[in-house]
Amino acid sequence: MPPQPPAPLSQLPVLIKGLLLACLAGALAGSASALFLWGLDQVTGLRESHRWLVFSLPVLGFVTAWVYLRWGQSVEPGINLLIDEVQQEAQRPVPLRMAPLVLLSTWASHLGGASVGREGTAVQMGGALADQLSQRLRLDPRERRLLLLAGISAGFASVFGTPLAGAVFALELLVLGRLRHDALLVCTVAALVGDQVCTAWGAHHTHYTLGPVAPLGVGSVLAVVLAAVLFGLVARGFAQGTQWLGARFKQWVPDAPWRTALGGAVLAVLFWWGGAWRYAGLGIPVLVEAFQQPLSPWDFVGKMGFTVFSLAAGFKGGEVTPLFYIGATLGNALAPWLHMPMGMMAALGFVAVFAGAANTPLACTLMAMEVFGVEIGMYALLACSISFRVSGWSGIYRSQRVDPTPLGQDPSGWTLGQLSARPPSPPAPPDRDAR
């Protein structure tokens, strides 16, 4: 006999409890993001006013890595730890120290000018604070997982001012090709509350001028398809390059504090004497310029190289805003070649490179409509979907699982990190009965 659906009123207490928990998680994450964004503005302004602070990168890197080595090894995986905790049956509380450690270390990274982002910090703080709430309230495993996802959604939504994208981001984050619909309501509420609370604290988000959008037609669609393939290849290169260089760094300099200090010294020299200041920090001014005027066709290469190097050396922050920079400047460079509006192509690169690197095409499509307007929605969905497929089984979040249903049975239950480390399969032996 098939199971009977629950009576509607019987679910009301569960619904109310879930909404209250989502509101609490959103308020905590939104407040943490507001504090983080305020501090980020302060350290960025200080660095721009005193550019000699780039020479503090070796010291800041050494101290950050030493602190993590001493007190933060359990939270070193960052977002990947949150993904694992949602996926696993065992209850292992996320340490509260994840929030202050990633907050202070990201401020330190940006004070010295390391090319890192900010979403990793907000998501980790949101997840860590949400899990502390689940421990205090003694929630059962299912409720705890939903609250963790709510914290992730609220952190992402509040740091970028994109509640729709934040809600779906957490649902797409866990498994490639599968959404967690059971968490849709709590993630939506948490994302909305987190965004509103962050704004109420006075946090501001960058605004971009899109300009004209090409009318739908065969030529414009083909141009977007071609650009999306390139966006996906760049996303794949970024994810694999960060993983490869990070592994090489650990081989060359096994001691984490000295590894990050060495990386900081190299970055300081390149920023000061190598004429690479435009690739320091978040790079928001250049990102805004990508929508307004033609830029160097190699800007995306420079930002990609400096970000891969900064992350591989061990500096904390995130990847998303640098991926926005990489995608927008690549779209800016492609626009004249494809005879498409510059702002439109910058906007598509902005979201599509991130979609390919994070494996979150739906969240990135919603982000495009929230940031640039609904008129770009169809192009964004096309670009993000293609970039996601072209990037393949690569990504910046190594604990993401692969859904075997649409892709074949081989990778069932594997993470992206396990798949990338798996040796190639040997060829099948020949069939002796074949003639």
TrEMBL record:
Record CDD domains: ClC_sycA_like
Entry's transmembrane regions: 15-40, 52-69, 146-171, 183-204, 216-239, 260-280, 300-325, 337-359, 371-391
Keywords of the record: Membrane, Transmembrane, Transmembrane helix
Pfam families, sorted: Voltage_CLC
Membrane topology, as annotated: Multi-pass membrane protein
Compartments it resides in: Membrane
Keyword Nucleotide-binding attributed: no
Region described as Disordered: spans on this chain: 404-435
Protein name (Swiss-Prot/TrEMBL): Voltage-gated chloride channel family protein
